[in-house]
Amino acid sequence: MPWHIETDNAECNGYAVVKDEDGEVEGCHRTQEQAQRQIDALYAAETLMADRAILTPIVVTDIDGTILDDNGDPIVGTIQQINSKNEAIYVLTGRAAGRRNETQLQLDAIGFDVEELIMVGSQSAKTAAMKTLLQSYDVTDAYENDPEVIAAYRSLGVTVHEPSLRHTHKANSSRLEQVEKILADLRALR
Nearest to residue 28, comparing CAs of 5, 3, 56, 51? Predict the structure, then answer.
């Protein structure tokens, strides 16, 4: 959306930045240089928004303590929140790459359908991986339980949610019953 500078605008004493489309004054400035800096900033913001609009939206989640508790049981509340987003799910975990098969089996067992499984080997490497994702994707939401990683993601402008500790399984039910209940809950959401 183009803008221009006016020196005789009734709404400003000085230099007015005006939107070409409807004549709306975007700002008033004492100098022409200040007005030009606002126009440059408006164009930069418009370009950034256009770039983000063409990026594929994704949701990023951790595993341990986020979608699986300390016992390896699913944290159903978080899983339901993630699945309700209706976006591709990328798992970004500090687990070592050597645990890929085990991890994929755990995700399959709880019916958690992921687009990509990114295993970076440590909690500290997650921030760099998130920066890389942000270059190619619009990360609309992230789910994480580590306070340092949460702070790092937020500093990158990512909306971060902490896990919901709500479970639907009963302490005395079998593992198979737990998985069946979770799968039924997840199917009901779709």
Answer: 5
